[in-house]
C-alpha cells in the first residue's frame, strides 16, 4: 500500500471516529429524575435495645441516563487502545429533612404520641451529569 493511500485511509478513519464521537455525545441523556422510595429507620437506646421503628414513602431525586463511552486505537496505550468511560452521576448533593409517619414500638404496636413521627436527614442528587468513571476527586 502506498504512503498516500495509507494517509487517506488514516484521515478517513479519524473523520469517521470524530463523527461517531459527536453522535454519541448528542445521545447523552443524564438527568435528575424524581422517584419514590420506601425508607425505614430504627432508633435504639443506650443499651442497644430497639426503641421504635419508623417508615414511610419518600419522594427523592435520582440520576439516570446514558453517557458516551468509547474505545479507540492508541499508539501510546500499552493495550493499543485508549478507553474513555463516562457515567451518569450526581454533580451536587443537597441535604434535606424528611418525615416518617408510620412508627411502631418493639412489639409492633403503632405509636400515637409524640414518638409517632421521626425526622430523618437524607442527601439526594440536586443535579446530575456525565463524569469520567472512577473519578471521585470532585
TrEMBL record:
SMART domains according to UniProt: CT
Database matches in InterPro entries: Bursicon_suB, Cys_knot_C, Cystine-knot_cytokine
Signal sequence extent: 1-26
Coiled-coil ranges per UniProt: none
GO biological process terms on file: G protein-coupled receptor signaling pathway
GO terms for cellular component: bursicon neuropeptide hormone complex
Keywords, sorted A to Z: Disulfide bond, Signal
GO molecular function, one term: neuropeptide hormone activity
Family annotation (Gene3D superfamilies): Cystine-knot cytokines (2.10.90.10)
The CTCK domain, residue ranges: 32-134
Protein name: CTCK domain-containing protein
Natural source organism: Spodoptera littoralis (Egyptian cotton leafworm)
Amino acid at each position: 500500500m502506498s504512503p498516500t493511500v495509507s494517509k487517506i485511509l488514516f484521515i478517513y478513519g479519524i473523520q469517521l471516529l470524530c463523527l461517531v464521537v459527536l453522535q454519541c455525545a448528542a445521545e447523552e441523556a443524564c438527568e435528575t429524575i424524581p422517584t419514590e422510595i420506601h425508607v425505614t429507620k430504627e432508633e435504639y437506646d443506650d443499651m442497644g435495645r430497639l426503641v421504635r421503628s419508623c417508615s414511610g414513602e419518600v419522594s427523592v431525586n435520582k440520576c439516570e441516563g446514558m453517557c458516551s463511552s468509547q474505545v479507540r486505537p492508541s499508539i501510546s496505550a500499552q493495550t493499543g487502545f485508549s478507553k474513555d468511560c463516562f457515567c451518569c452521576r450526581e454533580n451536587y448533593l443537597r441535604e434535606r429533612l424528611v418525615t416518617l409517619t408510620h412508627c411502631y414500638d418493639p412489639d409492633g404496636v403503632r405509636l400515637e404520641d409524640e414518638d409517632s413521627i421521626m425526622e430523618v436527614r437524607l442527601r439526594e442528587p440536586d443535579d446530575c451529569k456525565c463524569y469520567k468513571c472512577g473519578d471521585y476527586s470532585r
